[in-house]
Specification:
GMP Synthetase, Chain A, domain 3; metal-binding; OBG_GTPase; single chain; Rossmann fold; EC 3.6.5.-; 9 helices
Amino acid sequence: MFIDKAKIFIKGGKGGNGAVSFRREKYVPAGGPDGGDGGRGGNIVLEVDEGLKTLMDFRYKKKYIAMSGEDGKRKNKFGKDGEDLILKVPPGTIVKDEETGEIIADLIKNGERAIIAKGGKGGKGNVHYKTSTRQAPNFAEAGDYGEERWVILELKLIADVGLIGFPNVGKSTLLSVVTKATPKIANYHFTTIKPNLGVVNVVEGKSFVLADIPGLIEGAHEGIGLGHEFLRHVERTKLLVHVIDISGIEGRDPIKDFEKINKELELFNPVLASRQQVIAANKIDLLDDMEKFKEFEKTMSRKGYKVFPVSAATNKGIKELMLYITELLDKIKDVPLQTVETDHEVFRLKENKNKDELIIKKENNIYIVEGKSIEKLVYSTDFNDIDSIRRFQSILKKRGIFDELKKLGIDDGDTVKIFDIEFEYYD
């Protein structure tokens, strides 16, 4: 099965906690703090592997969490950074933030990498909290949590030329004739259920990748049939070869077919409709009246299109078409991937989107405070040390937590619960 879309959960590793430690050498009975910093958490990294062709692996495993950083150590020794978790993807993979729909990476070249979830920063050791008035800080900073998000992986084929057209017009046959690809061919609509790739080499030293894009139908831009899945693969091609059944043996009108397919491209993404097209008037061997072809060619020429009479079944005109495409590709510049929503030429991972939402509420006469930064503060505090407690209270005050508790009606002696720790409140 061809898997070209997957949804996965990714989470960078947690940063290691800073260490609380003091020098204990033989001739230094009251040594100062020497707790080292925690290591950085591992990143989630995607790397292009040209040997991969599908996103099949991500169908069976949905969650990926990188390694946490080591905690800091005594003697000012830093904890080791967590190893990055490297996930291999095929070339042509686009990564979207599931919540916002924003593209955060577009991976094309073999070996190309992108960090899609950063690991948390390591916490500072107690050596950083020594001051002139606080010589022996008995607390350190906890490591940050890594970024986490659901992402959509989307595979878009990377081909120079795409074959488009209605089902059963001979695209798969044409691909099999000019390349070594062996697509499944039969006489029914939507014969091709996945895009097929092949390499065309008609000029020594020059070749191009040709993709047989599955047959389109009216309404494809709305997702009818497998419209969206198929149209997605057209976006990366530099040139489109529009295959038309010129014989009309199924009662089709070649000009109307051409207009309908281009309308679907335009409705899905206007950029696609502007791609340069060459027309392959296929099944010319089944056409009794050549005037019908001449009329079609004249109409298309007025619109600015080059038309080739071909027969994929008998090889008629195929070499001439492929030679023309080879020459034309040298003149066409690479087309950056664009969509109607935004320009996607630049891809940068946004800053940490983990929202630190503070929750302050009252349940059963207990006041509850929750939030990632508060959790980190709790685990960074030594509640047996007066300096550490003062720092804890100062941060709560700066964050406006005491003011919010007062708005909820807290009184002296009431219980405040912050995660697993309960306090008595006094103003």
